[in-house]
Structure formats: C-alpha cells, structure tokens
C-alpha cells in the first residue's frame, strides 16, 4: 500500500499539490488525473479517498491499517464508488446508477467519493450527465477522474476539475528497482518500455498471458519476414483469439511497436536501444532485410494510427486487418 511520501518520489509535483490541499483542508470537489498507464493514477485516487475516510490519519498520511483504509484498498468501501468502462465505453446507464446511489445518504458517513477510470471513454450522454453532477458540487462529494487523454474530455468537464498532470517515471531508476526485485536486465528494460508501475511490471514478468502475447508478436514479425502471404490468416487464428479485451489489444500493439522499433535500431546500428528482441540476431537480421528504414518508419506510424483507432472504438479486428495490409505492402 503506497503513501504520499512514496508518491512524492515518483510524482513530486502532483504529491505536493494534493498534500498541500489536504493540509489546508481544501481538497477539491473534482480532480482530473492525467497520465500514461502506470504513472500512479489509481494509487493517487486511492490515497485521496483514504485521506477522506481514514480513522487514524497522521498529518497527511492515511494509516493504511484501519478498517476504512483496508476496504478502500480492496475496492469494498460502501462510500467509495469506482466506475470503469463496460466494454469499450462508460455508458449513461452507469452514470445514472452512480447518481441514484449518491441520492442516498452515505452508508457510514455523510461523505462520498467516486472514481471514474478511463474517463476519456465516457459516451457523450454519460459525459453530459457527469457534467450536471459537477455543476452542483457538494462539499461532501469528491469526484476523481482518471484519463490517459485529457483532451478527449469535454472542455466543460475539464474546466470544473483540478487537473493534475502525472509525469513519466525516471526510466533508469525504474529499471534498477525491477532488477532489485529479481527481474533480468533485459526483462526490466522491456517492462520499463511498457509501464511505469512497479507492481504491474513484476506481475507481467510472471504472467502466462503476457508471455504468450510476446511470443505471438515474435511469430508475427517472423511471418512478415518469411511468409507474408499467410499473415492475414495468422492474425485471425492467433492474434484476434489472444488479444480479446481493449486493454489487451492496446498492449499487443504496444509490443508490436517495440518489436518494429528494435528492427529499426538494428538497421541503423543502435542495438543498445533495443528492448523487445534479446539474443535473436538471426530474426533481427531477417526482418531488417525484409524492411527498409523508410518502410519501418511507415510501419511505426501505421501502428500508432491503429492505436488511435482503438481509442476511437473502431472494430479491433478491422484495425488489425488494415494494419496487416499496410505492413504487407
């Protein structure tokens, strides 16, 4: 369980802004925490909630031991409500249910907190419903919205929130911590390219799904190099089957992006920057012969565009089909 002193090590500005508000008893009625995956959005949201409910608060630090802190950490506190996308978006029905819940008095206090994960996925109707919630703030209600793309949030919502921008972690320090926790240097380097969250990185390094995902990406690069005519079939038989959820699909594209970057680095003799391919000289050489530097740059742009399409809720199978055709050319 993290505390504010730990948050200050990785997000010093965000920690200072929020803890100063706590000291002055001026916690905002609405926060918008903006940062890439793994920058600590959920940990900060939890800490804000704990500050409001902790039974043994010591200055700005929640105790992390009392009944309220433990239930907030486990997601089971009756007055702290988490809302996250159902499928690809947060729908108006979810916000209606949240508002209905908030029409009742608190189960254990007069205070309530709601946290909206992936706030950029709010449908237009859901966003407008949240806006009404924010336009009539209650001192006893705190809204915390988490997003990787604050520009996708309605300007009228942003204007009613205190926006906290979270910065990427120091990559060298992060990789060092991963090695200290038992990861190999090569695995730590890959994890550092994917996430800034220590627990997330350690969990992924031991996760069977992630190991299979990495293997599929390696096989896909091999297919592009050796049997490009069979890639389309491979996408349907392996990629689509394994990467089912939106977060998984995004992670698959993140891995593919890193793989093609490694091929480009190999092309230009900058092997020290490679993070995905380790001890796979033969495959790298084969892939480098299959794609020119110009083609690799075009492919990287195509993968980034595919990621944007996923964010826009374009059908993921269609996204991969289009990306495959683009890379095959």
UniProtKB/TrEMBL annotation:
<dbReference type="GO" id="GO:0006261">
    <property type="term" value="P:DNA-templated DNA replication"/>
</dbReference>
<keyword id="KW-0235">DNA replication</keyword>
<dbReference type="InterPro" id="IPR004622">
    <property type="entry name" value="DNA_pol_HolB"/>
</dbReference>
<dbReference type="Pfam" id="PF09115">
    <property type="entry name" value="DNApol3-delta_C"/>
</dbReference>
<dbReference type="InterPro" id="IPR015199">
    <property type="entry name" value="DNA_pol_III_delta_C"/>
</dbReference>
<dbReference type="GO" id="GO:0009360">
    <property type="term" value="C:DNA polymerase III complex"/>
</dbReference>
<dbReference type="GO" id="GO:0003677">
    <property type="term" value="F:DNA binding"/>
</dbReference>
<keyword id="KW-0548">Nucleotidyltransferase</keyword>
<dbReference type="GO" id="GO:0008408">
    <property type="term" value="F:3'-5' exonuclease activity"/>
</dbReference>
<keyword id="KW-0808">Transferase</keyword>
<protein>
    <recommendedName>
        <fullName>DNA polymerase III subunit delta'</fullName>
        <ecNumber>2.7.7.7</ecNumber>
    </recommendedName>
</protein>
<keyword id="KW-0239">DNA-directed DNA polymerase</keyword>
<dbReference type="InterPro" id="IPR050238">
    <property type="entry name" value="DNA_Rep/Repair_Clamp_Loader"/>
</dbReference>
<feature type="domain" description="DNA polymerase III delta subunit C-terminal">
    <location>
        <begin position="245"/>
        <end position="327"/>
    </location>
</feature>
<dbReference type="Pfam" id="PF13177">
    <property type="entry name" value="DNA_pol3_delta2"/>
</dbReference>
<dbReference type="InterPro" id="IPR027417">
    <property type="entry name" value="P-loop_NTPase"/>
</dbReference>
<dbReference type="GO" id="GO:0003887">
    <property type="term" value="F:DNA-directed DNA polymerase activity"/>
</dbReference>
């Amino acid at each position: 369980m993290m505390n504010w002193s730990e948050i200050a090590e990785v997000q010093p500005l965000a920690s200072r802004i929020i803890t100063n508000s706590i000291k002055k008893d001026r916690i905002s009625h609405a926060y918008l925490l903006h940062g890439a995956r793994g920058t600590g959005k959920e940990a900060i949201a939890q800490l804000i909630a704990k500050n409001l409910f902790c039974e043994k608060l010591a200055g700005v630090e929640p105790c992390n031991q009392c009944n309220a802190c433990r239930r907030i950490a486990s997601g089971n506190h009756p007055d702290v409500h988490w809302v996250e996308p159902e499928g690809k978006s947060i729908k108006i029905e979810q916000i209606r249910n949240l508002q209905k819940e908030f029409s009742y008095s608190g189960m254990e206090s007069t205070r309530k907190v709601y946290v909206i994960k992936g706030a950029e996925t709010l449908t237009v109707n859901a966003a407008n419903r949240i806006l009404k919630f924010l336009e009539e703030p209650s001192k006893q209600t705190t809204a915390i919205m988490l997003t990787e793309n604050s520009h996708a949030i309605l300007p009228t919502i942003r204007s009613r929130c205190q926006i906290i921008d979270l910065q990427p972690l120091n990559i060298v320090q992060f990789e060092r911590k991963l090695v200290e926790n038992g990861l190999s240097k090569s695995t730590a380097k890959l994890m550092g390219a994917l996430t800034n969250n220590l627990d997330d990185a350690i969990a992924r390094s031991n996760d069977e799904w992630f190991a299979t995902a990495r293997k599929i990406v390696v096989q896909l690069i091999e297919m592009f190099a050796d049997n490009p005519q069979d890639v389309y079939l491979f996408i349907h038989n392996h990629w689509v089957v394994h990467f089912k959820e939106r977060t998984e699909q995004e992670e698959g594209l993140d891995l593919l992006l890193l793989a093609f970057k490694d091929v480009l680095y190999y092309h230009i003799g900058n092997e020290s920057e490679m993070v995905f391919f380790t001890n796979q000289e033969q495959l790298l050489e084969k892939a480098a012969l299959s794609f020119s530097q110009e083609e690799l740059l075009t492919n990287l742009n195509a993968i980034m565009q595919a990621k944007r399409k996923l964010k826009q809720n374009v059908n993921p199978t269609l996204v991969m089909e289009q990306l495959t055709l683009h890379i095959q050319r």
